[in-house]
Amino acid sequence: MVHKKILSAWLLVSSLLLAQAGYAAEASIEQESTDLSAFVHQQLATDRWDLVMFWATNCEPCKKDFQKLARLMEDYPAIAMSIIGVVIDGQQQPQIAAEIIRQRNLNYPHVLTNYETANTFHTHITQQALLGTPSYLLYDHNNVMVAANPSIIDIDALLMFVED
Predict the structure, then answer these.
(1) Minimal CA–CA distance to 105: which of 27, 15, 43?
(2) CA 20, 112, 26: angle at the middle one, nearest 5?
(3) Strand, coil or helix: what is 132?
(4) In degrees, to the nearest 5, what angle opens at C-alpha 73 toward C-alphas 72 and 78?
(5) d(CA 85, CA 72)
(6) Which pLDDT tens digit goes with each residue over 4-50?
(7) CATH number for domain 2-152, candidates 3.90.550.10, 1.20.1250.20, 3.40.30.10, 3.60.15.10
(8) pTM for the whole structure
């Protein structure tokens, strides 16, 4: 059951990234609001998949996932998906986070927070601690979190999940 949930999460994350290609989002960077949950839920839409990506400025696997997601969105523009970035060291590294977002053309909303706040949100949603970055939450068209992925994106798995 746990393995199926992890596979589902990987697939959902990949799906959301693919759908982002067809969704013209606007880049934005927000300092953490008093409620990370409220920020994330304000970004969710009922007409698409939403992928929440937890990342850190010093995370090399995250940077590789940015590339995978960009390629996925280019290759699969018909998938309706958006991405929401949660920078877990953003309060400590706001200039570095902003530079990464600009340089990598991450045209979707980001919130700058800290690990403790991100972990509290993640634990509340998944009943599991945030193990590290990258990590993902996938929300369906009804704004229901349907998968959690505590690791790098597996695009093939995500595509299989979204197509089912």
Answers:
(1) 27
(2) 35
(3) coil
(4) 115
(5) 17
(6) 444 343 433 333 333 333 334 455 676 655 588 888 888 887 778 88
(7) 3.40.30.10
(8) 0.79
